[in-house]
Structure formats: structure tokens, C-alpha cells
Give the backbone structure.
Amino acid sequence: MTARTDHADSRTDHADSRTDHADSRIYVICAGAGVLLFFLGPALALLADFPALGAATIGYAGIMLFTGGIAARYGFALGATPWKQLGRNLAVAAVVTLLFYLIFLLLYLI
């Protein structure tokens, strides 16, 4: 009886790890998009004569996506579904990023 129960538990663990792997793909894509967006801001400012404030805003949006994706991947704010977990972590990242963005604006506009 014990061997049969252990075998059933290992199948459940394997199914959970596949789900975790599929879920983490969403978070990694979000973080990767954040990195690309982060570097897009300075690239636009340097190569396309884009305004500095707009480039910084794009960069901060990238920081928010990256932070939210990484936080979701490592389970900072948990959710019932992968999308809810990503949403909660993006909300936390948005609040923190907004705080730093406001400090940046204060220094930039002085």
C-alpha cells in the first residue's frame, strides 16, 4: 500500500512542477519585456533624439515590468492563478516604481 501511495504522490508532484514551469514562463516573458523596454528608453533618447523625460518614463515602465515579473516568478505576492499573481506583483512593482519616478521627477524638474 505504501509504495502505491508514494507513486501517486510522485505523479502529483511531477504535474505540479510542469504547471510551475509553464507559469514561470509567463513571468520570465514579462521580465524580459521589461528589460527590452528599459533599454528602449535610452536608445530612443540617444539614437532618435527623443525627449529625455519621455525616455526616462519608458525606462521606468521597463523597470516596473521587470520587477513585477521577477517578483511573480519567486512568489512575492501570491495569487490563485498565474495571471492574478502576475497582476498583484505588477501592482506592487508599480507602486514602488512610481515612488522612485516621483523622486526622479522632483530632481529632474528642479
